[in-house]
């Protein structure tokens, strides 16, 4: 049950943060989440739902509803999450624990080292 819940939390994060990105970008968002959780399955859901960490969990509307079952992006996010948790997909971000879309310029970006740009996202790790 723990692994199933962790996979769903990770899939929700991938879906809401990167569903329009190439697969590599979706994997990158998933591995950032895992890096924050120190690749500990028990920590995935707390990382995803920590206050003000991901844009979709900070929305005013209740963000916790699952996407429609037939949504292809949701199906892909679940598959990728399962493969990441299962250890089949490795970190493509060079240890990143933060990211943002190109369209925003968060003040914290200067605090970290930029590791990679994938799709519409810029990834960062601690210096």
Automatic annotation (TrEMBL):
Cross-referenced InterPro entries: Cell_wall_hydrolase_SleB, SleB_dom1
Single GO MF annotation: hydrolase activity
Positions of the Cell wall hydrolase SleB domain: 20-124
Keywords: Hydrolase
Keyword Hydrolase appears in the UniProt entry: yes
Protein name: Cell wall hydrolase
Source organism (scientific name): Pantoea wallisii
């Amino acid at each position: 049950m723990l692994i199933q819940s962790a996979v769903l939390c990770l899939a929700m994060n991938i879906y809401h943060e990167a569903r329009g990105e190439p697969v590599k970008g979706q994997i990158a968002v998933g591995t950032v989440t895992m890096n924050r959780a120190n690749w500990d399955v028990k920590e995935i859901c707390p990382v995803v739902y920590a206050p003000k960490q991901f844009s979709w969990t900070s929305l005013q509307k209740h963000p916790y509803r699952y996407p429609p079952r037939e949504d292809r992006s949701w199906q892909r996010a679940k598959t990728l999450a399962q493969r990441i948790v299962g250890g089949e997909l490795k970190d493509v971000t060079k240890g990143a624990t933060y990211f943002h879309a190109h369209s925003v310029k968060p003040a914290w970006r200067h605090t970290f080292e930029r590791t990679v740009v994938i799709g519409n996202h810029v990834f960062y790790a601690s210096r």
